[in-house]
Amino acid sequence: MTQHIVAALTEIKTELIALELWSSLPPSPEALASTAPFCCDTLPFEQWLQFVLLPRMQALLDGGHPLPTKVSILPMAEVAFADYSQDMRLLMYWLGRFDACFQTD
C-alpha cells in the first residue's frame, strides 16, 4: 500500500506542476494555521494540497507513523477545481487513486 501512496503523491505533485498550480512561495504561517477543513478559508485548494497534504503524508510515511484509515480528497477537489480552465482529469484521477489507497472494504 505504501508504494501506491507514494506513487499517487508523486503524480499529484507532477500534475500540480504541469497545470501551473505549483507555488514557489509558501503561504503565511497564519494561513497554514487555519482550523477549517482543507484550510478552505485561507488557501486555494491547490496550495492546501502542496503545503499541507503532501508534506504531512510524506512525514507520516518517513516517520513510520500510522496512516489515516479514511481519506476523501477527491470530492473536495471536484468542488474546488470546478471552475478552473485547465484540464484537471489527470489530477482528479490521481487524487482518486490516493483516496482509494485508504479504502477498506
UniProtKB/TrEMBL annotation:
Residue span(s) of domain YqcC-like: 5-100
Transmembrane segments: none
Pfam families named in the record: DUF446
Superkingdom, taxonomy of origin: Bacteria
Annotated protein name in UniProt: YqcC family protein
